[in-house]
Amino acid sequence: MKKNLFSLAALLLAGFAANAQEVKFEEYDLSNGMHVILHQDRTAPVITTAVMYHVGAKDEQPDRTGMAHFFEHLLFEGTENIERGDWFKIVAANGGSNNANTTDDRTYYYEVFPSNNLELGLWMESERLMHPIINQIGVDTQNEVVKEEKRLRVDNAPYGKFIENIKLHIFKKHPYKGTTIGKMEHLDAASLEEFQEFNKKFYVPNNAVLVVAGDFDVPSTKKMIEDYFGPIPRGEDIVRNFPKEDPITETIKAKAYDSNIQIPAIMAAYRTPAMTERDAYVLDMLSTYLSSGKTSKLYKKLVDDEKKALQVGAFNQSQEDYGTYILFGLPLGDNTLESILAGIDEELVKVQSELISERDYQKLQNKFENDFVNSNSSISGIANSLARYYMLYDDVNLINNEIDIYRSITREEIQAVAKKYLNPNQRVVLEYLPEAKDEN
């Protein structure tokens, strides 16, 4: 009976996903190279205006890390027509909200307004692009803001530097070896002219996508977009030629220390393909199989059954050029880091040597179907997805059909991809320890 109910639920969920509302959109280019995506949804009087720039931490000079993230802050300082300190006041006074975020690959800015303030959102984003004021006052102010963010989120956060240490060892040539927030001494050393040059190079219309999503009239919106963004001059084309990484052929062992923790952690990280590759989707499914929820394989084995770990997990960090697949565990009591890693490896060997069960496979499919249905539940979420699929995948319609990729992944593929990438001789093993020890 349980099996029948499970199958029925799976069928219903699959049907629901198949009939989920298609996200309709229109896309076109302005003469200056700016890409525009429009998604009209008049069910609520809300509008999102968003611009994603194809610039992230990987685009920085090795001795000037942190620039891309710094600009996420700096470009709220003001423009020729928005007084310094007034950006957030204008947004709040008009019933809106806004934010920005940066990754190694892109920087994203957005506003959410009542739909009658669409023009305001477009004007503000065009101001950010056309008329930013980049002066020493703004640089000095935001330098302190970024330093405080680094102290809060990285330096003083338990386990805050583990990704930083993984990247440092898994990438030797590619700029992914750095961190998104960068090094403060690099920002301190940068001249005002360097900040201005960074803006001139990357904050150009032909390196950006503008998304308008929500309740708007298409013809009048197109005219406003042309009026506000059309006159902005095209920038120089950006050429990227990042070095390729050599394969990892033997285990790289490393240690890192964190004064903010009391419990050590063990991490095993593998370099994986770019986010656009099919194997990256398979690895998404594999990480869900291993560690999503308390019924997942790693949690059930190491936390519930064997009681060796306080916490254990796996996640696939996909990026534009490469990905990083990370497994981790925190030991319980006197259990060693080595025993946690051995337990993780046992589950990896099972996936590599046996097909996952039909039941587990169906649970995976159900979860991804459910995530797909929920992924486009807000206008701001849709705007982000539209920008990201264009900028990093070069296929906006993935917002509607990416689920088909997950649906088509087989149990045999999950086994094959685990065999291909997740082997001891292809990884970094990092011991993340509570305090530095005298090695002498």
UniProtKB/TrEMBL annotation:
Signal peptide stretch: 1-20
Pfam families named among the record's database cross-references: Peptidase_M16 (PF00675), Peptidase_M16_C (PF05193)
Domain Peptidase M16 N-terminal: 36-180
Keywords: Hydrolase, Metalloprotease, Protease, Signal, Zinc
Keyword Signal recorded: yes
Domain Peptidase M16 C-terminal, residue spans: 191-367
A biological-process GO annotation: proteolysis
GO molecular function, one term: metallopeptidase activity
Cytoplasm keyword on record: no
Family: Belongs to the peptidase M16 family.
Protein name: Peptidase M16
Protein species of origin: Lacinutrix venerupis
